[in-house]
């Protein structure tokens, strides 16, 4: 499937007029990480995305008929990272089509609904798709959503934690409604990906690493004094 | 509701809409983005409002979003250009105000004149009443709000005067074909962040006072002294920053011609040694132009907070270039405050105060720190300290009176005659700068080595040539003095001590606010992703029939804020974006915000796809991926049911069907097609459908001219198809031409042709030898052989009536050659060395044998 990449970046830098900016907000992000969000229909994938990108929650959010897209720039170890997040339709009939979107994901958020056991039971099928369709370096984060509906809980934390441990997945429970732990899920995933890049476990040159590195602009160096002769006439 | 009424709802009470106009933002090749301009008045002051509309025309005030509000004041400019519109009545306007630029196109209409008349009237009114006008009411519209800024996705660029100009740079214009999601002009995003950070500076910085020592001395080319302590260490408490300027450091020809001077190092050493010993200092920068030198030191412990140090020099000597006069400057960011130190030596001679003013102006405009984008000039700093031998003298008072008055410490009267005070007061120089009160003796001119006034014949009036001025808020001068004990020069050194407020960043708060702004931007960025509504994502085609196209419409509405380019894209592993039986028109297009695009989907099951539907290889089901460039994908499901037809069935299957196909369940049909059925009854030798058609032609068409040459009618084909599929007792409908064509289509729609694909090549290489051709035919599957021989027999009969029907055997052979020996799908004729014509010729020859020879030997074994 054709998927366009980031537009080319400007090549010059703007030096800020304030001292602090040039020091603290280096003018570009260093990486782009691609994420996908997968899981059964109705587990709250789109809500997690909206909570993360727009800090909003829509009750009765319509089913995603396709693939939603969101973006946010975050900071990991002082590096700016742009997250491109693909939120896939959970309906079974779209499964064949959404498989196209896994490729090249650096992070995969696999979501189930803690109040609906069936969505938990299907995890192994989502996991096998994720494993088969992404590269071995892809960080898979398991998210039990709807933590705000504790009284209707159908899957215990311990059970899911065990599943995550057995399969080598990161795991947390979150609430797209209250926003609780939503940031954590996205940020921790980025952190792990970043660590993988740092220690070389993730090969950026691989076409499907899901990470694009941006060449940082060179800042102008104001310390180079101009060589101005007095005899210019 | 009328537009102006809607707009009134949007505005605060008491603000009146004077005139309205629609326009489109223009930038580059841009798809157009609609904007509404409104001229709004309150108490005779005017503002220009720029709106985006979520609906066009807007129905309620909620459809309006304010992008920009600019006051119609002295900074407001409006250029109208109708000449550049070659063709129609479009006009282009260039609006600019402080921090704002907008280039728009408009259709000129009857309201255009009104709008621009009102606009120019508002500008005139401003000029008349500017003293009394109050623009505070505009502030209530939150023009600094980040969301609104993003409404236009601005770029902060610098113009030459280095005011930050915000160009209304349409994000949409940057939408590359590829991936505009949030990446449109990253620099503009950064600029917005920077601007926001500057606006909220007070929230993350604390004011902190620092002591800044400024020193200036015209040393008259003298070698250095061993100690400068009297000058530089006169305060007990060590300052945080030293900025020390010299003039006439070196009067040698070498210095003048080559800007090379051993004195630089000597004086640097002397200064470094004489800095307050209670502080540890580090040199930030040294800059020299001929005799003008400036050295800046800060306490060691502050070095980490000194950033973006830059220097520049300006010569204002002869030709405006030579460096005997002019200035040198060092700029730096100290914590979050920008500082600029300017050391100048202005034109000499008593009468030349105008030249000194001019030198000042020259330095102001030519002193540029060009490694910044945009480049910075002196005035682009929070604090400026300007000092040096400014050379302003005392006129209007003779030397004796001056000396007499200053001896009595009566400086006030003398300073009345000071050119700098006079020129400064008159606004001719150092506009915006302050100077502390002078309570020290004039610093020029002394006999070197003494504290005696110049004894030369000129007998000049002593003057305060050496001065220190500053510009900026929260700067307190603690001391301003001269240092008469330093005797080597004809000037005395001067110094000033300042307590200056610097914004110090609170990192925790800074991060918090930065993060907050980033989040808001991300949010806005996501809101600015392309958005569409599709009115139907489940397209259902009912009762699709063979060779009868069906259309469905789909409407894609751009509900977002930016133009959308959409395209149907391929799914993984697919070679096309939709199934072969589906056509999408347009499959790719642009939609402007608020606009819609109708997409037509056409399903047509023809000979290429019919057999797949019958056999179950394919079905009326597809998921289309509607991709928004730079945004999301929408899945559109296409389903439907196909009405089975004999067209597309294999000859084998048809022979087993003793009743009309309508009465055969689909499952049964599929089993037959896949040879999985155990039919007990004997099959027909040839399909009844073939027989019906041939029999009809035999009875009605033997004498028909151009049979198999003229095409039939589409409507008659549909009737014939229905007749065959439904089995009606009436006579077969349609003209003989339509029946003939139906026969050809029936034979052409099977998954395998009569000569199976695997015999295609063999067949073509055998055409020269009838016996080999016969051999091939005898080996065909029984039903195919039957049909072949049956048709050949019929065609021979047809050719017996050449006198009536004027048919040509070669033409008939050619028509049936293409049918009997159908090319395999995607066959590459060039691969086998055959061209299309040579293949056709061979096919014709093959069939020709069977039309001119007797095949009773073949038929013997066949029972009809």
From TrEMBL, chain A:
Subcellular compartments: Cytoplasmic vesicle; Early endosome membrane; Golgi apparatus, trans-Golgi network membrane; Recycling endosome
InterPro entries: P-loop_NTPase, Rab_GTPases_membrane_traffic, Small_GTP-bd, Small_GTPase
Top-level EC class as recorded in UniProt: hydrolase
Recorded GO CC terms: early endosome membrane; Golgi apparatus; recycling endosome
Catalysed reaction, written as an equation: GTP + H2O = GDP + phosphate + H(+)
Membrane-topology annotation of the record: Lipid-anchor
Cofactor(s) required, per the database record: Mg(2+)
UniProt keyword annotation of Transport present: yes
Gene Ontology MF term list: G protein activity; GTP binding
E.C. designation(s): 3.6.5.2
GO annotation, biological process: protein transport
Keyword terms: Acetylation, Cytoplasmic vesicle, Endosome, Golgi apparatus, GTP-binding, Hydrolase, Lipoprotein, Membrane, Methylation, Nucleotide-binding, Prenylation, Protein transport, Transport
Similarity remark: Belongs to the small GTPase superfamily. Rab family.
Name the record gives this protein: Ras-related protein Rab-14
Automatic annotation (TrEMBL), chain B:
Main location: membrane
EC number: 3.1.3.36
The name this protein goes by in its record: phosphoinositide 5-phosphatase
Protein family per UniProt: Belongs to the inositol 1,4,5-trisphosphate 5-phosphatase type II family.
UniProt GO MF annotations: inositol phosphate phosphatase activity; phosphatidylinositol-4,5-bisphosphate 5-phosphatase activity
CDD domains: INPP5c_INPP5B (cd09093), RhoGAP_OCRL1 (cd04380)
Root EC class: hydrolase
Cited SUPFAM superfamilies: DNase I-like, GTPase activation domain, GAP
Annotated GO CC locations: early endosome membrane; phagocytic vesicle membrane
Subcellular location(s) per record: Cytoplasmic vesicle, Phagosome membrane; Early endosome membrane
Lipid metabolism among keywords: yes
Keywords: Cytoplasmic vesicle, Endosome, Hydrolase, Lipid metabolism, Membrane
GO biological process: phosphatidylinositol dephosphorylation; signal transduction
Organism: Acyrthosiphon pisum
Residue ranges constituting the Rho-GAP domain according to the UniProt record: 670-859
């Amino acid at each position: 499937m054709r998927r366009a990449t980031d537009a080319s970046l400007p090549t010059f830098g703007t030096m800020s007029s304030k001292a602090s900016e040039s020091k603290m907000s280096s003018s570009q992000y260093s990486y782009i990480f691609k994420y996908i969000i997968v899981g059964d229909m109705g587990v709250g994938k789109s809500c997690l995305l909206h909570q993360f990108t727009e800090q909003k929650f829509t009750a009765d959010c319509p089913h995603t008929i396709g693939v939603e897209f969101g973006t946010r720039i975050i900071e990991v170890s002082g590096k700016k990272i742009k997250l491109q997040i693909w939120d896939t339709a959970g309906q079974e009939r779209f499964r064949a089509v959404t498989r196209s979107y896994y490729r090249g994901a650096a992070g995969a958020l696999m979501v189930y609904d803690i109040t609906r056991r069936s969505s938990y039971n299907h995890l192994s099928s989502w996991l096998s798709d994720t494993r088969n369709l992404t590269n071995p370096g892809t960080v898979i984060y398991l998210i039990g959503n709807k933590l705000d509906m504790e009284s209707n809980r159908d899957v215990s934390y311990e059970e899911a934690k065990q599943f995550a441990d057995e399969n080598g997945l990161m795991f947390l429970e979150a609430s797209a409604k209250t926003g609780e732990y939503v940031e954590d899920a996205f940020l921790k995933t980025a952190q792990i990906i970043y660590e993988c890049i740092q220690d070389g476990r993730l090969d950026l040159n691989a076409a499907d690493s899901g990470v694009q590195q941006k060449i940082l602009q060179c800042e102008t160096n104001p310390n180079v004094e101009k060589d101005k002769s007095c005899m210019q006439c | 509701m009328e537009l102006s009424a809607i707009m009134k709802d949007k505005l605060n009470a008491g603000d009146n809409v004077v005139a309205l106009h629609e326009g489109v933002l223009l930038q580059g090749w841009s798809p157009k983005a609609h904007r509404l301009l409104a001229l709004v008045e309150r108490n005779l002051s005017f503002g220009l409002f720029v709106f985006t509309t979520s609906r066009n025309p807007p129905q309620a005030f909620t459809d309006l979003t304010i992008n920009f509000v600019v006051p119609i004041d002295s900074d407001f400019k409006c250029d109208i250009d109708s000449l550049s519109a070659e063709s129609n009545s479009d006009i282009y306007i260039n609006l600019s105000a402080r921090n704002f630029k907008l280039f728009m196109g408009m259709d000129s209409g009857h309201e255009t004149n009104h709008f621009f008349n009102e606009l120019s009237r508002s500008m005139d009114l401003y000029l008349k009443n500017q003293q009394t006008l109050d623009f505070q009411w505009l502030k209530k519209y939150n023009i600094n709000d980040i969301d609104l800024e993003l409404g236009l996705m601005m770029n902060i660029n610098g113009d030459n005067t280095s005011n930050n100009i915000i160009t209304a740079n349409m994000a949409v214009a940057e939408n590359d074909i590829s991936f505009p999601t949030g990446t449109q002009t990253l620099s503009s995003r950064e600029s917005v962040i920077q601007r926001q950070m500057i606006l909220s500076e007070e929230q993350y910085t604390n004011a902190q006072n620092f002591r800044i020592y400024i020193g200036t001395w015209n040393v008259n080319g003298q070698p250095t002294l061993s100690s400068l302590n009297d000058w530089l260490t006169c305060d007990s408490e060590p300052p945080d920053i030293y900025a020390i300027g010299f003039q006439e450091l070196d009067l040698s020809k070498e210095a003048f011609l080559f800007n090379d001077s051993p004195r630089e190092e000597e004086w640097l050493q002397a200064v470094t040694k004489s800095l307050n010993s209670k502080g540890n200092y580090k040199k930030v920068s040294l800059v020299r132009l001929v005799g003008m030198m400036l050295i800046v030191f800060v306490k060691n412990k502050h070095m980490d907070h000194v950033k973006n140090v830059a220097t520049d020099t300006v010569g204002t000597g002869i030709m405006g270039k030579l460096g005997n006069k002019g200035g040198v400057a060092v700029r730096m960011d100290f914590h979050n405050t920008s500082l600029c130190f300017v050391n100048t030596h202005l034109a000499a001679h008593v009468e030349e105060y105008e030249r000194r003013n001019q030198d000042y102006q020259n330095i102001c405009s030519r002193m540029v720190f060009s490694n910044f984008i945009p480049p910075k000039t002196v005035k682009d700093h929070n604090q400026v300290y300007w000092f040096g031998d400014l050379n302003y003298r005392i006129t209007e008072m003779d030397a004796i009176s001056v000396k007499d008055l200053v001896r009595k410490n009566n400086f006030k009267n003398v300073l009345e005659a000071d050119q700098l005070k006079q020129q400064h007061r008159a606004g001719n120089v150092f506009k915006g700068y302050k100077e502390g009160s002078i309570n020290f003796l004039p610093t020029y001119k002394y006999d070197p080595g003494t504290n005696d006034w110049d004894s030369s014949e000129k007998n000049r009036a002593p003057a305060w040539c050496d001065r220190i001025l500053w510009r900026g808020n929260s700067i307190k001068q603690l001391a301003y003095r001269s240092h008469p004990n330093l005797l080597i020069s004809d000037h005395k050194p001067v110094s000033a001590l300042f307590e200056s407020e610097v914004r110090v960043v609170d990192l925790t708060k800074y991060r918090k606010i930065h993060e907050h702004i980033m989040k808001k931007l991300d949010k806005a960025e996501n809101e600015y992703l392309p958005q569409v509504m599709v009115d139907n994502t489940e397209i259902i085609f009912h009762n699709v029939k063979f060779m009868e196209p069906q259309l469905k419409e789909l409407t894609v509405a751009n509900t977002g804020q930016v133009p959308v380019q959409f395209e149907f894209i391929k799914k993984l592993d697919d070679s096309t974006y939709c199934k072969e039986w589906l056509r999408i028109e347009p499959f790719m297009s642009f939609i402007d915000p608020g606009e819609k695009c109708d997409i037509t989907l056409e399903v047509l099951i023809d000979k290429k796809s019919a057999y797949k539907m019958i056999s179950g290889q394919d079905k009326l089901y597809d998921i289309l991926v509607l991709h928004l460039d730079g945004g999301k994908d929408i899945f559109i499901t296409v389903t439907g049911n196909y009405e089975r037809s004999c067209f597309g069935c294999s000859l084998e299957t048809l022979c087993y069907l003793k009743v009309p196909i309508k009465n055969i369940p689909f499952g049964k049909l599929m089993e037959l097609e896949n040879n999985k059925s155990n039919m007990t009854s004997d099959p027909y030798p040839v399909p009844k459908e073939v027989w019906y058609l041939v029999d009809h032609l035999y009875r009605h068409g033997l004498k028909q001219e151009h049979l198999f040459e003229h095409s039939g009618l589409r409507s008659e084909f549909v009737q014939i198809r229905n007749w065959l599929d439904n089995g009606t007792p009436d006579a077969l409908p349609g003209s003989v031409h339509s029946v003939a064509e139906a026969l050809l289509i029936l034979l052409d729609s099977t998954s395998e042709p009569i000569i199976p694909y695997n015999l295609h090549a063999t067949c073509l290489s055998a055409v020269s030898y009838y016996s080999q051709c016969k051999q091939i035919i005898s080996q065909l599957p029984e039903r195919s052989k039957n049909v072949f021989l049956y048709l050949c027999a019929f065609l021979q009969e047809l050719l017996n009536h050449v006198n009536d029907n004027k048919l040509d055997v070669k033409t008939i052979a050619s028509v049936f050659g293409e049918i009997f020996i159908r090319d395999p799908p995607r066959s590459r004729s060039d691969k086998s060395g055959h061209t299309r014509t040579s293949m056709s010729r061979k096919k014709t020859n093959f069939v020709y044998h069977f039309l001119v020879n007797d095949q009773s030997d073949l038929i013997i074994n066949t029972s009809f």
